[in-house]
Q: What sequence folds into this?
């Protein structure tokens, strides 16, 4: 998982998939509510890499004990966890922007997104936090050395990156956007993420 703790990763996932902190707490009061498969798969892979097959079962048991359901039913605790995640993510986004010598135009830490501009390359840059791939730095571009997506050697890597962002941030594209080259589709994805309504700002019905 890298940047986020297990608790932070679970709360971050639920928040990005439409639940406010109070709604997360309410959901975890239900016996039927399970931890998100996506996050748990990432945690399992991380433990497998770190401890190997021999130590995996022991570490999974330890993780299960650490992820006490009762903690997730406390709205105040969930809010603190979310704020910790946001703080970590914002710091990491800004550090990447500094490393790439970007002018920061906006930071939406609660969406894991930083927009910047690289004056040397004369292009917009999007920096996005993901749990699976870490921080993604995406330079707006029209082609890769003159090659469009079908001929580009980076096509598979770009597809995985954009798919990961869409899954983690619950973003859907219209059919016409799905048909775009990834150079254009990526901008549609980042714009949707920037404009996405966040759970904590939703009006209570």
A:
């Amino acid at each position: 998982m890298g940047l986020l703790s297990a608790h932070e990763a679970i709360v971050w996932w639920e928040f990005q998939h439409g639940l406010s902190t109070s709604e997360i707490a309410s959901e975890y009061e239900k016996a039927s509510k399970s931890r998100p498969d996506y996050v748990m798969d990432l945690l399992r892979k991380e433990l497998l890499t770190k401890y190997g097959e021999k130590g995996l079962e022991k570490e999974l048991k330890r993780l299960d004990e650490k992820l006490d359901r009762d903690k997730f039913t406390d709205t105040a605790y969930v809010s603190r966890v979310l704020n910790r995640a946001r703080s970590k993510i914002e710091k990491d986004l800004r550090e990447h922007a500094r490393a790439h010598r970007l002018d920061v135009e906006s930071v939406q830490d609660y969406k894991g997104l930083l927009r910047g501009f690289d004056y040397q390359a004369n292009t917009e840059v999007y920096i996005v936090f993901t749990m699976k791939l870490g921080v993604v730095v995406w330079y707006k571009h029209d082609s890769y050395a003159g090659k469009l997506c079908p001929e580009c050697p980076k096509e598979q890597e770009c597809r995985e990156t954009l798919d990961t962002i869409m899954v983690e941030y619950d973003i859907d594209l219209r059919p016409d956007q799905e048909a775009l080259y990834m150079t254009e589709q990526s901008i549609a994805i980042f714009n949707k993420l920037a404009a996405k309504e966040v759970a904590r700002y939703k009006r209570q019905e």
Observations:
- The CA atoms of residues 62 and 79 lie 24 Å apart.
- Helices lie at 6-16, 21-27, 37-66, 69-72, 75-99, 155-168, 175-178, 182-195.
- The first helix runs from residue 6 to 16.
- The chain has eight helices and four strands.
